[in-house]
Design goal:
Nucleotidyltransferase, domain 5; 5-stranded mixed β-sheet; 136 residues; alpha/beta
């Protein structure tokens, strides 16, 4: 079975996570600056057997897409130009994923100073996106 790569897309930095080959465990990957996301993603796709890319779908409370969706679409166009192999793209509602990530980090007993590290929240948000996809 192939792995799933999850991305919590942000304007400054992007959280990433990936499943194991059996899609049982989800592991956070280092957070990357947005400008490095394309190259990092292509590197992961070339190194690992990844079948599915899961991205958070940014929605307003009324269900309409936020400005970030256009940025994600632009990223996907660039990705398709550079990575020609088959790759399933799935969107998952990312509503409250950052809140849920903060709560999980808090519940895990991480010290207050480390909880302020926003990259940890981005990583955990990517884990949550994959979890939502697998649960769906």
């Amino acid at each position: 079975m192939a792995r799933i790569l999850g991305i919590d897309f942000g304007m400054k930095r992007c959280g990433m996570a990936m499943t194991d080959s059996l899609q049982i465990s989800i592991n956070p990957l280092p957070t990357v600056p947005k400008k490095e996301l394309l190259n990092t993603c292509i590197q992961k796709l070339n190194e690992e057997d990844i079948s599915t890319l899961v991205l958070g779908l940014p929605l307003h409370a009324d269900g309409s897409e936020t400005y970030l969706k256009k940025e994600i679409d632009s990223f996907l166009v660039q990705l398709r130009k550079k990575y020609k192999q088959a790759l399933e793209i799935q969107f998952v509602d990312e509503s409250f994923s950052s809140f849920e990530a903060k709560q999980l980090i808090f519940d895990s007993g991480v010290k207050k100073k480390k909880r302020r590290d926003k990259s940890k929240i981005d990583q955990m948000s990517a884990v949550i996106l994959i979890k939502r996809y697998l649960n769906y």
